[in-house]
Write a structure and sequence with these properties.
There is one protein chain. The chain has 6 helices and 2 strands. By secondary structure, the chain is mainly alpha-helical. A two-stranded antiparallel ribbon has the order 1-2. The protein is globular, with a radius of gyration of 21 Å. Helix 2 runs antiparallel to helix 3, helix 3 packs antiparallel against helix 4 and helix 5 runs antiparallel to helix 6.
């Protein structure tokens, strides 16, 4: 595993553990019972994160290669009294809004769909039961919940976060999502 991928995976796994621990503490508080942490539940979420983070990093790199987020900031202009058209190059780069939109739509449909199906199937595999039935039952509720949160994170990451930091930034936002998902699927 490449060093950047390993670093991102470890960071995401730690953040996943924190999210699940927080969810268990919140659950104990809500039920007014002593805090007892389930190591198997924490490990379930951490293992999922370790499995999916490298794939998500590769996914983000693919999207960025296919639809570069920035383009050189050059403005074609014809200089006065010039027989040939010349370009004035402006230093730096600018956001490519068309590619941003393409990445956003593909990530929020294909990427989110694959992650959701994978998560549900993984949990069914760990907890037992029919993966097919769990996917049919849980896909739309999880997707609906995710659409209230992840589009904002996705747009933010695509617009301002370098590709090699997107998974970690996403994982930081994922603490909030992880607490929510841990509470929803039961800790």
């Amino acid at each position: 595993m490449a060093p950047q991928m390993l670093q991102s995976t470890v960071q995401a796994a730690v953040l996943s553990a924190i999210a699940n621990i927080l969810a268990q503490i919140i659950t104990s508080y809500r039920k007014n019972i002593p805090i007892t942490l389930s190591l198997s539940t924490i490990l379930t979420f951490v293992i999922w994160t370790i499995l999916v983070t490298p794939l998500n990093l590769l996914w983000q790199q693919f999207l960025e290669r296919t639809f570069p987020g920035t383009v050189p900031a050059s403005t074609p202009k014809t200089l006065p009294n010039s027989p040939a058209k010349e370009h004035v190059v402006v230093p730096g780069s600018r956001l490519h809004k068309g590619n941003l939109l393409k990445k956003f739509v593909i990530d929020q449909t294909v990427g989110a769909g694959l992650n959701t199906v994978g998560f549900i199937a993984f949990l069914a595999g760990v907890r037992g039961g029919s993966m097919r039935e769990r996917i049919i039952q849980d896909f739309w509720p999880y997707t609906s919940a995710g659409l209230r949160f992840w589009p904002f994170v996705s747009l933010l990451c695509f617009a301002v976060v370098p590709v090699n930091h997107r998974v970690v930034v996403g994982s930081a936002f994922g603490v909030v999502w992880g607490v929510y998902m841990s509470l929803v699927v039961g800790v």
